[in-house]
Write a structure and sequence with these properties.
The complex is a heterodimer of chains A (261) and B (281). Chain A is an alpha/beta fold and 261 residues long. Chain A has eight helices and 14 strands. The chains are: A alpha/beta (261), B alpha/beta (281).
Chain lengths: 261, 281
């Protein structure tokens, strides 16, 4: 393989999780890149839904916002936003939800609201958006988040979206309909919940990453799964496809727009 | 009724009003927001799922006392720095937050459109939002006893939308990404719609979003009224401007200088666009 960045490796590892024709609820950023890479490589039948109401969209470049015209023009259909959330997501018609966040804890709960107290935050983050209900209703959730002691924390400043709550079945008992976070793709590899405690543990490493590196980047005592796998390096095909997508995207976003006078 | 934008804002948007400028990424009524800034409205309760650059500008210029919202970032770019400054440092004034998820706010708009008292959803479970927002409560299903989340209906004093076209009778057609525009329109006490063009007859579109003339208080012809967001079929979203906004809005001084030159210094939206065009040339 040619040398690649950890962001590229994360994106490719996430794309590989999308097999067959799943219905995916997609967020902007790395999740959008991963979903479209899967569509352009091994999963042409994947159905991408963005919360702007675009269903079955096949963008040629990655959208900057969740509602770029590219998404509408290449969609199978465009529906009002309340329909997406009530008739599709809440009704259980989404297989995979992709989420990012500023913080994650050991049970996969997510914070995208504030750092510091809610009423006097040190950093005010964008907030919930679609995440709380994606986290509740998608049959499974994948989280993509670069790891550091500031992002993989012992205790969230605010719980925006539910993972496994306190673990040990508390999520299932809360009445959440979806399955919760099945994988956390980060820049040293992947975490997944333990079957009983539902605590996230290290299940796979990138070929050039180590357990020590992973432990150093995680704010709780990270357990290692009995069977620790190695994530194969990106193939030339995966990497070329992703890079071409990113080049097309950068060019499109920098293109001057005719001001409508 | 066809009005100029200045007349419509003057007549329908008063200090202290609750105002929803809707349009999910697409068809954001920037021209109307700028006119509210020019007319120096104060103490507004701003309502919008995604505050976007237009509310960043209105908050930074001191128009708002309260914000009802569900995601407050610059999409794909980062923070809304003026919104952050208001929440973190109360600049230029304190801003009360009524914070939801998209699903919750969509339910609240749907209830508002139907003139029901509250919206209901399976939502917010396992989140800290209800602990910080008394507008997120729970109600038991009268048939099964299931506990569901409830949010009060949103019925803005004024909703403002931007749309592609209206006909001479005042019916408005919207196509492309519609977000919760229809629900926000039907929930409003007063509805103002700015449009790219007024045509003799709307193209036949059996399942398109058409807002009928009798729910609309004012139609305002306003070319380019959604720029730097976009109007599908008319002009593209200026993604480069959204990226540039990050640097403009990061500091108070650069923000105020930009607003002074481009918005307060322009007599109307045409002059605003002409100014940007001169700058780009």
């Amino acid at each position: 393989m040619s040398a690649c960045t950890r962001d590229e490796w994360m994106t490719i590892a996430a794309a590989r999780l999308l097999q067959g024709r799943p219905v995916c609820f997609v967020g902007i950023g790395l999740p959008s890149a991963a979903c479209n890479l899967a569509r352009l490589t091994h999963a042409p039948g994947i159905v991408l839904i963005y919360e702007s109401g675009t269903i079955g969209t096949r963008p040629d470049v990655l959208p900057l916002s969740i509602g770029d015209s590219e998404l509408a023009e290449t969609a199978a259909c465009v529906v009002p936003l309340p329909e997406i959330f009530s008739y599709y997501l809440q009704a259980g018609r989404v297989d995979i939800g992709f989420l990012g966040a500023a913080q994650i804890d050991r049970h996969g709960n997510l914070n995208s609201t504030v750092i510091g107290p809610y009423d006097a935050p040190g950093t005010r983050l964008p907030g919930a958006g679609g995440a709380p209900e994606i986290a509740l209703h998608a049959k499974q959730v994948f989280v993509m988040l670069r790891a550091s002691r500031r992002s993989f924390v012992e205790r969230l400043d605010f719980r925006t979206s539910a993972g496994y709550l306190d673990g040990h079945g508390t999520r299932a008992r809360s009445g959440a309909t979806g399955g919760g976070p099945r994988a956390v793709i980060t820049d040293f590899g992947m975490l997944a919940p333990h079957t009983e405690s539902e605590e996230l543990q290290l299940t796979a490493l990138f070929a050039d990453a180590t357990v020590e590196e992973a432990r150093a980047a995680v704010g709780w005592p990270l357990q290692v799964a009995d069977c620790l796998e190695t994530i194969a390096a990106p193939s030339a095909y995966e990497l070329d496809t992703l890079r071409a997508l990113n080049v097309r995207t950068r060019e499109a976003h920098a293109r001057p727009v005719h001001i409508p006078l | 009724m066809t009005l100029s934008l200045a007349e419509a804002i003057e007549q329908f948007v008063s200090d202290g009003a609750s105002v929803a400028l809707e349009g999910f990424t697409h068809l954001i009524p920037f021209a109307a927001g700028h006119e509210i800034i020019r007319q120096r409205r104060r103490d507004l309760h701003l309502i919008r799922m995604t505050p976007d650059l237009i509310y960043d500008q209105m908050i930074g210029m001191g128009c708002a006392r309260k914000l009802t919202f569900s995601w407050g970032g610059n999409p794909g770019v980062g923070s809304l720095h003026r919104l952050r400054d208001a929440v973190e440092n109360q600049w230029p004034n304190p801003l009360q937050l009524d914070e939801h998820s998209h699903a919750g706010m969509a339910a609240a708009f749907c209830a508002g459109a139907a003139r029901l008292p509250f919206g209901v959803l399976r939502g917010y479970a396992g989140t800290d939002l209800p602990a910080h927002n008394p507008n997120i409560r729970h109600v038991a299903c009268p048939f099964t006893g299931e506990l569901l989340a409830a949010v009060p209906a949103i019925n803005p004093d004024v909703t403002i939308l931007h749309a592609q076209r209206a006909d001479r009778a005042g019916n408005v057609a919207i196509h492309g990404i519609v977000g919760a525009a229809r629900e926000a329109a039907l929930a409003a006490k007063t509805l103002i719609v700015t449009v790219e063009e007024i045509v003799d007859e709307l193209p036949p579109a059996m399942n398109a979003i058409v807002l009928p003339h009798w729910i609309i208080s004012a139609v305002v012809p306003c070319r380019g009224g959604a720029y730097p967001s976009y109007a599908h079929g008319h002009y593209a979203r200026d993604n480069a401007f959204y990226q540039q906004w990050d640097a403009i809005a990061r500091e108070r001084a650069s923000f105020l200088a930009w607003m002074d030159e481009h918005v307060l210094g322009a007599k109307d939206h045409g002059a605003f666009l002409a100014g940007l065009q001169r700058e780009a040339a």
